[in-house]
Amino acid sequence: MEHTTFVGLDVHKRTTSVAVAEPGRGGEVRFLGEIPSTSEALHRLVERLKRRHRQLSFCYEAGPCGYGVHRLLTALGQDCIMVAPSLIPSRPGDRVKTNRRDATTLAKLHRANELTPVWVPDAAHEAMRDLVRARATARRVLGKARQHLQGFLLRHGRIYRGVRGWTRAYRRWLTTVRFDHPAQQIVLQDYIHAVEDAEVRLQRLERQIEELLPAWSMAP
Fold first, then answer.
1. How far apart are CA 86 and CA 183, in angstroms?
2. Could you read off the pLDDT of 74-96 as tens digits, one per residue?
3. What is the reported pTM?
């Protein structure tokens, strides 16, 4: 790695801050500025750096912008690692964060081999993870919808006397609940519809996961 120039990227939605650490322990560390967070701008950056440096190694923090930067750089034949923010060494009291400082710190730490890479899934694995996350979200939405309905019923003294909720018996009981004022009956039906819609969404996602599961490496 004696001829490698280390590049720290602080990636955000609209811009990416870039810093480089020259080879060698005493090599210069400098901030290059910001580029748009687009594949075209990143491609131009790689071409510009390749004209001045024999070998490049990029790094950036894992975050909400996903794995696109890593996939683009590796597709261009460049070495690149992602690191979780919690795995980045920091000094006590060093709380002032700027894009420039973050990019420069990443470049220096990468040169010192003090960054721990995280695993980067391939596109197919990430797609399945997104689907599984959507199911988890659907379960939370269903839970909230049920809570809203049960809270509404409890506020108005409509209490189910059975052993467990959300059984067939409980659902039959829901059809017998009546309010004197039509506005409250409308609210009841709206809460019931919200639960039913959430249940349908969850079932649909689970079926789709089951259909795609055999082709996924995590199927077991």
1. 50
2. 999 999 999 999 988 887 666 66
3. 0.79
